[in-house]
Amino acid sequence: MAIGKxxxxxxxxxxxxxxxxxxxxxxxxxxxLDVVMTREPxxxxxxxxxxxxxxxxxxxxxxxxxxxxLFYAARADHLETTIRxxxxxxxxxxxxxxxxxxxxYQGTAGAxxxxxxxxxxxxxxxxxxxxxxxxxxxxPEVGMQRANARRCLQTNDAEETASHPDRFEGxxxxxxxxxxxxxxxxxANNPERCAVIDGNNDAETISDNVWSIVKDRLQPGERK
Length: 224
Ligand code: TYD
Hints:
Elements: E1 6-11, H1 17-30, E2 35-39, H2 45-54, H3 64-88, E3 92-96, H4 99-108, H5 114-124, E4 132-137, H6 140-157, H7 173-189, E5 194-198, H8 203-218
Parallel strand pairs: 1-3, 1-4, 2-3, 4-5
Helix pairs in contact: 1-8, 2-3, 3-5, 4-7
Bound molecules: thymidine-5'-diphosphate.
């Protein structure tokens, strides 16, 4: 069986990645493809346990390196138990955030040097680079407003913690500006893999733009 395709979605807070991941999955399934939706941090039982640690706003202070190692520990397990087996079966994998998030959050906007990220990436991700990365770009101010609005809605029906910003959402505006720059730099440096999508449009327009890029770059109808 042909190997599946690996698509990642990236962007700052409130960029609408999760909605777009779902809309893309619907379109791919409609043409008969077998789609796996997953996310980072998380995406496997062990990865999800590490997610709870990584996003816990009450976590004691720790170094940028120890945090990066945890993200990559979760990523290694996610690749081994979810992503690679799915691709090997010819399934299409849509992942909400992946290694570019580490480069933008812990690298450009954080304190981790790119050499360390490159080393971890070579060890953990190795050949399993995404076939396509959709970078949803949005003014961070608009993104944070959306993320806040989403949290307000969640308080009504989810557990209480849903109303609090996680460790990354709660940061200052300069952090979110740096994040945006980080993602745009990655896209500029990897034009064959990445496509930047304007996140200012409504979800339907963004989804149409995503679909035309996916069709153009990966030819999903041809069952490659
Ligand atoms: P999540 O609730 O999934 O946020 P979003 O809806 O914005 O995707 O939480 C994931 C958080 O983890 C998000 O703030 C980004 C951060 N993160 C990193 O800092 N580094 C990483 O490598 C990954 C995968 C995520």
